[in-house]
């Protein structure tokens, strides 16, 4: 069950739990996801998938993946996750580029989804258990969990990013860091909508996601910029720009709060930023205590908390005191 949240509530959030990962190897967290019921968090480095139970804030498992490595990891359902690879050419190029369905209970792979010929950079799982992946091979592949081959293939002229609408009936694709297209799951032969935006020099779009209510689309970039679009018209609504006084050092993620007018962004500093879209982009920072950059953020509407991550994971809850 999710609740409404305001910026006043968010200002009361404090770090309640810290999970240190891979301190010996100094690896950073690459991907975060919550299970649909909010009870479990997965957070992976290039080699280890950490499974954390939210209720007791204890690690349920630390699952190694030394052979293929780990890129993006998303929950498929409560017991399985979809993994992309971090290694791509050794020892088996075909399997290294495949998506993998991992059983969290047995810690074994149930299925390999083979079809991409270059690195997978975008992954989305719909509410009705469909899978979509975007790759540097300039394709989006649509998958059914029951088959290891794609059921449909969409080709583009550049690397695509993909995101399912919360209903699962539609999905968005963006490519060339300027073009957004909307497709129906049931009718893939034509686009429902398309819009081309100005392509900014040096700005590469890095991820795509819908708001919880499906009314907004968010694009993160490699240049301290998060762009918010209307999901219906595809018009640009907001441009959230981070601290341009700092030298650029890499990708910064963002997420919507349950109320779509509030956006959390990661940071190249040791704090997270919160933006209120309905108040002329009013922004404030939450000082996290991270010693290093914390580029990843993700909100859990079921438990009304969020996590920030870099070289460790901080779990934030509202402090009523």
From TrEMBL:
InterPro entries: Swd2/WDR82, WD40/YVTN_repeat-like_dom_sf, WD40_repeat_dom_sf, WD40_rpt. Keywords: Nucleus, Repeat, WD repeat. One of its GO terms (cellular component) is Set1C/COMPASS complex. It comes from the Eukaryota. WD repeats lie at residues 113-153. One of its GO terms (biological process) is RNA metabolic process. It is found in: Nucleus. Belongs to the WD repeat SWD2 family. This is CLUMA_CG004747, isoform A. It comes from Clunio marinus.
């Amino acid at each position: 069950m999710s609740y409404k949240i305001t910026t006043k509530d968010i200002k009361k959030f404090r770090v309640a739990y810290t999970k240190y990962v891979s301190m010996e190897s100094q690896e950073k967290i690459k991907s975060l996801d919550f299970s649909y019921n909010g009870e479990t968090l997965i957070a992976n480095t290039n080699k280890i998938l950490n499974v954390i139970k939210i209720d007791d804030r204890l690690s349920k498992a630390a699952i190694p993946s030394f052979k293929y490595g780990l890129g993006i990891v998303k929950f498929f359902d409560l017991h399985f996750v979809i993994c992309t690879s971090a290694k791509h050419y050794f020892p088996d190029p075909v399997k290294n580029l495949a998506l993998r369905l991992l059983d969290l209970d047995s810690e074994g792979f149930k299925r390999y989804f083979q079809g991409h010929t270059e690195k997978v950079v975008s992954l989305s799982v719909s509410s009705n258990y469909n899978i979509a992946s975007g790759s540097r091979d300039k394709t989006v592949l649509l998958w059914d969990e029951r088959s290891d081959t794609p059921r449909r293939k969409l080709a583009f002229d550049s690397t695509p990013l993909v995101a399912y609408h919360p209903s699962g009936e539609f999905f968005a694709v963006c490519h060339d860091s300027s073009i957004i297209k909307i497709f129906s799951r049931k009718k893939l032969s034509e686009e429902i909508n398309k819009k081309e935006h100005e392509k900014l020099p040096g700005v590469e779009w890095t991820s795509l996601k819908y708001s919880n209510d499906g009314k907004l689309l968010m694009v993160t970039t490699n240049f301290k910029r998060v762009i918010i679009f209307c999901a219906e018209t595809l018009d640009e609504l907001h441009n959230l720009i981070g601290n341009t006084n700092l030298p650029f050092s890499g990708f910064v993620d963002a997420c919507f709060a349950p109320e779509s007018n509030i956006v959390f962004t990661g940071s190249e500093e040791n704090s997270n930023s919160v933006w209120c879209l309905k108040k002329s982009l009013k922004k404030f920072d939450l000082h996290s205590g991270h010693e290093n950059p914390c580029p990843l953020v993700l909100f859990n509407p079921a438990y009304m908390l969020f996590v920030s991550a870099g070289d460790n994971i901080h779990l934030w809850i509202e402090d009523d005191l």
